[in-house]
Design goal:
Blueprint lengths: L2 H5 L17 H9 L3 E5 L18 H4 L5 H6 L4 E7 L7 H24 L4 E3 L3 H9 L3 E8 L10 H7 L2 E5 L25 H13 L2 E3 L5 H10 L5 E2 L16 H9 L3 E4 L3 H4 L6 H14 L7 H17 L7 H15 L4 E3 L19 H9 L4 H25 L1
Parallel strand pairs: 1-2, 2-4, 3-4, 4-5, 5-6, 7-8, 8-9
Helix pairs in contact: 2-15, 12-13
Bound molecules: zinc ion.
The site of zinc ion has 5 residues, from loops.
Length: 405
């Protein structure tokens, strides 16, 4: 998780250059009336941090937190997919057991958040649930998994996760795993796509009605998911190769394939995937040493987090790297809209997982995207679809496919 923060080359004390960008009353009203969902909220990583409370307002610069209830309300974010993220560790018996335990604890943390604040959050299992919850003025909590490694020791756990609310499954993170290849494993490809175990998992996800997510997976995994899945698939947080070529991004031909399958690409706001960031080995080594020093992020106190950020800022001063801004983000979003069409695009900005750019620092800034989309000529209907309609359509298709069996 934490590795995401520095390897993107974030300049941690951001410039707020566009913080005052105005949002017109028309955009504000459209945004408020739409169901606004983000497909990749890494916020569950914060839920067990000592003294951290989702109901309180936090500060991104000081506290590494981009999503909480006050800022969700301010930014008109109705909810989305709350992620069970597991860092890929050793793939032996002990490593798999550790991943299994980690996944279950993260799932419990999400369910504990809902149970503790039933007036504010509600678990969503279907597209209809999301619409109902949004109407009731509560936040929508869909549950997803980023990296299927918690299932490596026993893939049949997927049925238990499904019963407990899992509705989206991403195959890998930044390394290969037992189910398939990652787009960014330094060792290269291991399976030429999905492994046999990965193929079986795809079938099982289709049978249960779990949406498949190809973000982080290799291009071959993407192609095989499109081919094998009986239901549409998504990219929950991915940007465009044609704007900035990076193994973690996707090319136009594949964006078209995804759209033809009825799927949706949710555009990522992760700086290191939006613009070129120079590789500075000394910077990486120093950031890595800090990471080792502080240990697991979700266990750190607010004071420790703040000290960590100060230490990182010092490294940033020594080895500065550029950081993307809202214009860069919009370049990816508008390009993808042109290629996929507005029926096949959504937003998955990687909040609390390394996402956020200058001018779009946290979820309170989301109405700026609506303003920019209106300015680019997209209709109110298109914009409502981008914020949630397309995702919910895809979820209905996944559900229908499951029921057919
Ligand atoms: Zn990710």
């Amino acid at each position: 998780m934490i590795a995401k923060w520095w390897c993107a080359g974030l300049v941690l004390f951001s410039l707020h250059a566009q913080a005052d960008e105005t949002v017109s009353p028309r955009a504000r009203q459209l945004h408020e009336n739409a169901i606004v969902l983000d497909t990749h909220l890494d916020t569950p990583s914060n839920l067990h941090r000592p003294g951290w409370n989702i109901l309180e307002r936090h500060d991104q610069d000081g506290e590494f937190a981009q999503v909480d209830l006050p800022r969700m309300k301010q930014g008109g974010l109705d909810g989305g997919f709350w992620v069970i993220y597991t860092a890929q560790d050793k793939r032996d018996e002990a490593g798999n057991r550790q991943a299994r335990d980690h996944g279950l604890v993260r799932l419990a943390a999400i369910r504990e958040m809902i149970a503790a604040h039933p007036q504010d959050f509600e678990l969503a299992l279907t597209a209809d649930d999301a619409a109902r919850i949004e109407k009731a003025g509560k936040r929508v909590v869909f549950i997803s998994m980023e990296n299927a490694s918690p299932l490596a020791s026993d893939p049949s756990l997927l049925t238990a996760y499904h019963k407990l609310g899992l509705r989206m499954l991403g195959i890998t993170h930044t390394s290969n795993n037992d189910f398939g290849d990652s787009s960014t494993d330094p060792a290269g490809h291991e399976w030429n796509g999905l492994s046999d175990k990965g193929r079986a998992l795809v079938q099982e996800a289709n049978r249960l009605g779990i949406l498949l997510d190809a973000s982080h997976a290799s291009d071959q995994v993407f192609d095989q998911l499109v081919e094998l899945s009986k239901a549409p698939i998504v990219l929950s947080h991915t940007s465009a190769d044609a704007v900035y070529e990076h193994p973690r991004n996707i090319d136009d031909a594949r964006i078209r394939k995804l759209a033809a399958k009825g799927g949706v690409i949710h555009v990522n706001a992760y700086s290191g995937y939006l613009i070129p960031v120079p590789k500075i080995p000394q910077r990486d080594a120093e950031m890595e040493a800090l990471e080792k020093h502080y240990g697991e992020y979700s266990k750190l106190s607010p004071a420790q987090i703040q000290q960590w950020r100060r230490d990182q800022a010092e490294i940033d001063r020594k080895y500065p790297v550029p950081r993307a801004n809202l214009d860069d983000y919009m370049r990816h979003l508008l390009h993808i809209l042109k290629v996929a069409g507005p029926e096949h695009v959504g937003i998955g900005a990687d909040w609390d997982g390394g996402g956020g750019v200058t001018g779009l620092e946290d979820v309170s800034a989301l109405p700026k995207i609506t303003e920019r989309l209106l300015a680019a000529g997209y209709s109110e209907r298109d914009i409502r679809n981008i914020w949630g309609g397309n995702l919910l359509r895809t979820m209905r298709a996944v559900q229908t496919t499951a029921e057919k069996k």
